[in-house]
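so i finally got all the pieces together for this one. its two components total, 672 residues if u count the protein bits. some of the lines might not be protein, just check the labels. i wanna see the whole assembly predicted at once instead of chain by chain like last time, that was a mess tbh
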Amino acid sequence: MFDSLIAGIINLASFNSILLLMAGSAVGLLFGAIPGLGGTTAVALMIPLTFGMEPFQAIILMGGIMAATSTGGSVSAILLNTPGIAPNAATTFDGYPLAQQGKAGMAIGAGATASALGGVIGVISLVAVIPIMKEIVLLFTPPEFFMLAIFGLCAIAVSSGDRLLQGLITAVIGLVVGFVGLYDITGTVRYSMGIPLLEDGIKLVPALIGLFAISEMINLAVKGGSIAEDTSTIAITRVSDGIKAVFKNWSTMLVGSGYGTFIGAVPGVGGTVAAFLSYSTQVQRDPDPDIEYGKGNIKGVIAPESANNAKDGGSLIPTLAFGIPGSAETAVFLGVLVLHGIEPGQKLLVENEPLVFTLVVALTVSVVFATLVVLVLAKYMAMLTMVSVNVLIPTVSVIALVGAYALHTEIGDVVIALIFAIIGYFMIRFNYPRVTFTIALVLGALTELNFDQTMQIYDGDMSVFLTRWLSVTLLILTVLSLGFPSFRKKVRERNRRREAEAEK
Amino acid sequence: MSMIPEQRRPTAWFLISVLAVIILFIVISYSYAPNDRMFPLMVGYAAIPLILLDLLTLTNTKAGERISLFFSAKTPQQVDEGVDKTERPVGRELMVFIWMGLLVLGIYLAGFLPVTPVFVFCWMKLRGGYTVRQSLYSAFATLAFIYVLFEVVLQYELYPGIFLYWWG
């Protein structure tokens, strides 16, 4: 292993490799920061550039992109309340209120530092758990995948604070929207209303762009004003305050990184769920915060940012070990490996170990490099919050629509983005969480697929969910998470009563 | 509706619309084979009680209060206090939807590149009250950014608009 690590460092220690890594990181930052583009698009677009490269060079370029995307996405999530990529959506909850309070620099500092540390922890975990991860991932069969998806949805609904019921409703609507299009198991096209564009289902990228980027622009246009509530009061606090906050709240960062690594390793679930679970866990771990979550608590930035970068290492575990991509991004990356004649699995881990470590070193260096870039430019980026809405709205709307169109070059995607923008606006207006809707949309197909596979394997016997220990554990966690708000209320009331009695 | 206080009625209408969509979804589901509709129907039927419970929380009834306390640990009145009270006149909302609709229609008809500067210029001049020069600078800066990034660097062929197809 040590020899492979040295080989990985040597692969990276040339001028060309460093240039590729920096180019990859820059592309990752840019694609991460522009709402709707994201790492998957960046990796996919860069594939043709790798044709003439050595395999390790292609891996360095792709590693640079994958590691930097989440860091770039956190910038637009904090400054514009529009997550650059879906995993940054949880960062908006507290990052944006911090920006509104004139603490954008602090939020970016904390987000970037948490991203770097989370990314490094994820990569270290990748190295450490490869030998044992095979056993863990194999424990997940369709019933467990199904229960994990349901648990994820409920836990995220709970993280909506006092909007649990509304979170569950939007989760159900998200699942309903996710049913539109071709159903892989039977080959039936459902709920497309005869519209050819919908036959392949609602595409995630335009839907997310509409739901987060454009709906926010509509909301700003209706409300008026500027992104910062009062630009005259904005003072860009020192970025170093954010860096210090991460080290002060190290346990938040560690728990987030743990979530990112673990959830990232579960195929198909990915960084969005990891970031939201990390956020909701943080909210639950901290019942009496100094600053309420959702109103600018720095821990609400650290938790999701450490998780969504740690997932990069985690999601590579099933990709490299079993050829099962942990996310859309790693699925495209898998294509790059195959293109260069690298077969994932035992063969890669045993015969091509130096390549695995080249990727490990590239991810580590890239995430640190991207963080340094963001930290250096944070003060200038923070100034974006002072831009008038009447400059931002038209420019962001147009760029977001181009992003919606770009991935599939399908003009219908622009219409889908607009429809989801209107849906998203009404969710903002009536205070219904968009987050659970999004997660349900992402997980919808996976949930149904695993439900159907379970029914096929166990002849329609639903009791299987209650007879497998991991499935039952996840079910218990789901029920506990739903009862959490009323449990928390009872604990608070009891504490208040005790305090009142003690005062008497 | 009379059981629901005036300020919560727009939310109630929103929920009723969602309920209608869910009922339509369930009806359509029955047109598919049992294997195709099993999971969608489970989800659809799960949505109905959730929406009805939420509707109940909007009423000033004891049951509504209990449901609200269970799910959010707050009474409906406490929930109301946390709601964003910014005024959102329907006329202003409609106007913004029309602007966005016109942008998408413009893109469909004339393509991204001609519509981008026109939209940015018109928005800044007509809605933002910027000077012609400021609006022009922003319009062409946005156009240059989109053109360089998407057309030159990424080599996307941005949608040219249906007019161009018509005129060959």
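Chain B touches chain A through 71 residues (CB under 8 Å).
Chain B has two domains: 6-81, 90-166.
anyway lmk what u think
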